Amino acid sequence: MSALPLAALRQAVAPQSALRAGGPEAEQIGLLWNVLLVVGTAVTVGVLAFLAYALFRRRGDADETQGDRRMRAGVRWMVAGGVVLPIVVLMPILVLTMRTLGAVTLPSRTVASADEPPAPGEFVVEVTGRQYWWEVRYRARRPDLEFETANELRVPVGRRVVVRLRSRDVIHSFWVPGLQGKMDLVPGRTNALVFTAARPGRWRGQCAEFCGAQHAKMAFTVVAEPAAEWQAWAARQRADARPPADPATRAAQGAFLNSGCVLCHAVRGTPARGDAGPDLTHLASRLTLAAGTLPNTRGHLTGWVADPQSIKPGSLMPSVPLEPRTLHAIVRYLETLD
Amino acid sequence: MADDAAAERRKREFEETWDAPKGLLGVFQVIDNIPIAVRYMATSFAFFLIGGALALVMRLQLARPDGTVLDAQTYNEFFTMHGTTMMFLFVIPFLEAFANYLIPLLNGTRDLPFPRLTALSYWTYLFGGIYIYSSFLFGAAPDGGWFAYVPLNLKQYSPGHNMDFWDIGLSVAEVAAIGAAAEMIVGILRMRAPGMSLNRMPLFCWALLVTSVMIVFAFTPLIVGTAMLELDRKEMTRFFDARYGGDPLLWQHIFWVFGHPEVYIMFVPAVGVLTHVVQTFARRPVTSYTLMVLALLATAFISFGLWVHHMFTTGLSPVGMGFFAAASMLIAIPNGIQLFGWITTLWAGRPRWRTPLLFGVGGVVIFLLGGITGVMVAAVPFDWQVHDTFFVVAHFHYVLIGGVLFPIFAGLYYWIPKFSGHLLGERLGRWNFWTMFVGFNVAFFPMHLSGLRGMPRRVYSYPTGLGLDVLNLVSTVGAGIFAVGVLLFLVNFARSVRGGAPAGRDPWEGDTLEWSEASPPENAQFARIPVVRSRHPMWEQETLLPVPEDDADVADAARQLDHAPSRWRGSLVVGVLDGRPLALAHLPRKSPWPFVMSVGFTIVFVAALVEIGWVFWVGAAVTLVALAGWFWPLDTERVAIDELYAARGEGARGGQATVPADAPAPAAPGPVRLPLPVGDRSSNGYWGTWVLLAIIFVSLGTLVASYVYLGAGPSPVPAA
Questions:
Q1: Range of B617's domain?
Q2: pTM of the model
């Protein structure tokens, strides 16, 4: 992605609709939805038509004498509409449900325990829910190929991605409607979910289980790109942060390392090793800030560092009063972390 | 002439006996079902308005992206309290108010079996509601969702008192609901008009019987669960903490074992209301009474097997999910039977378009859509997309507003003339219906789409650019229209009680016994106990008085109880199945102790919140005093016992209190000779005790199931 479209991409919100499938899993579910919609509409229209007929049919003078006959017919209708119709309609739907379920999930034996490395050929991302952001760890069979980022999943197009879901605090739910249904992140368990992005693009995802004050602003982006681009990106992400190239940046880094930021954040290749907040090693390469809340631009970054509590009240990042000079130095340093 | 004077005196005496206590002190001593039901109705309707106002403010917040009407914390408090209020403080108590008022009237009896329990339930409910809402005064309103998932609501993540208010206050309200349920079960099974066998009982009573049994089996686990949660919050236990061998999913299982039947606990009484409205305004008995009863029973049974469909996204095994998906679809069968039962009744009859029927049919239409989307969300992979989104918000509002709120309004328009003696305005009623119906659909139909377009539930804001802006604005407009509809109801009601047309006994030509009584009914309702020979006594019986063709014991009981007993409150106890008169139940006249006892409860629960020891002991002392006062023998009990022995010529207090089997039936009204059982199988207390045992059994069952779920033993504490 070149510089200009990236800036534009950062401003636009990625689509988050279950109705526009970006891969086979979401397509399968979309197909199920279409069947449910058609059948549901047909049943609704049929029943409403019957109700309308029952209410508004023409009633002759001799109508009263038909009472007993109608009563017997009515019982037949109750059985036909209440027992036969649901069974006839729902059996095929149940079969389709179970087939779809099989098509969009992993065969259960391949759901590895959380700490195992991926099986050969398996693409595993471990997502850990935190109040209110997503820790993203790319797993690999060789530990030195693993790396960590936050609030953004980049994946190669066409590759089946296994997402292992865990939580460090409360229950969250991982949901990218364009690619797959949601799955909860439950403390003490590891859940799994698979999706495949069929084409390059971006999809917005969001926490779907109420997780506290800022549940509404716990989003993330899935970016699918061709395998080669993904490899290049992954190589950059694995690397430590670039050391400052000039004295001004070195001073800016000093301001960062002397600030409270390092208590919670890590920047690989520096003494900053905090674990409470997102890893900032390649912050500048990400599309958004504060878990999908803000576009990653200088203005927003400055605003976020200066006063996160006015943007996401109740988030765990405190608003720390900073001298303007310090603030700008920190932002300047963060901008070099690409 | 002397006989006439004696009869006249007895009549006056009877009416005095049944008068509700008056004056300021009387307010706290009333235990009669009707005044208590009216209070229940007014209180729960007030909570409905409050809960609705919360929803309106939330809709204003969501009208535009990045709304600024509410901040995140307040929004979270509002949605938590909206759900809590509507479920626990409006719908259940409101339906219980209907039941308190109507069950004795529908079943042709004078009161419920445990009037003091009625009052206790009301006061406890009122204090529970105030308790929860008082949290706003302390700036600590519950904010963790009406479902209080853990670990979010454990102390670590929710350190304030917010969820303590919820947890404890809810327990108070639940105790009230269980108390009312115990009362309904015994009342419906045991206290009916002579001749009203179980298969002649009105469907509303059937519905309440089913609901009450469900409350015992569903609310009890919730009380146990909230107690476990509170113990965890006080950090005395670790039931739900994964770090210490607990499991957050255990809470979800317990909560939804309650939470799913809860939906049907609300829906089943509404089925009863709808059936009455449909019958009356179609001018026909429902197509198949038997199928309707079976559908109610099947609903209750199946509803306990569906709870896991609230947990499809928690990572369960596919086989388990398949089972619960199938069970969830199965519920369509009883619902379908009910739906087609109403439609065919309307088809066979000649519908009269009055407001109650409008609300009834409108409710059916809305509920149908909710049922269809209900089948959709039972399809597991589709549920994974829409679970916890606005699609589900739309789904269950269609179910609850169509299946519960509209039937409640149908019931209000149907029975308010009975309650107040005045008809409601028809014209305004139509406006009321159409604004609510249109407003509802404008508000909630777009939510299906906003959910599919990615709008999760319980978010205080959403960004622009997701295609949600217009849909949300439309929803907010719809909510406003709906609110206008509710206001129109209040206007209609106010105009009606200030001089609406008098309703008379039977404004709708209804089929059930409540229409044989005055509007509003005398406190001493059914001074003459009606004899029931049909399912639709007001349509099919020439008279409610005993006739020579009646069974001797039925006619005899009706004659004996004509304005009698007059010096104490007595009501008939009948055989569960056959409705044959068995005995008399003595009912207390007034008592301050239910009020005192619920004050005691509330103090105990306040102590649990503030954790101050002496407050607890004060509450416990008040409760104990109330308990002693409650069990103190009543004067009227002594009068009743003396009278009955005197009538049987045995002198006071001697021998077994039963009528000899071969006693001849008297021809004319005479002294009351039915037995007054105490402690044997025909006493209400005996049956009430069984319900209590069932409650204890279910609580223990919940604990045992939790123990088994957590692995039948202590799990090792993982290394830190």
A1: 591-633
A2: 0.94
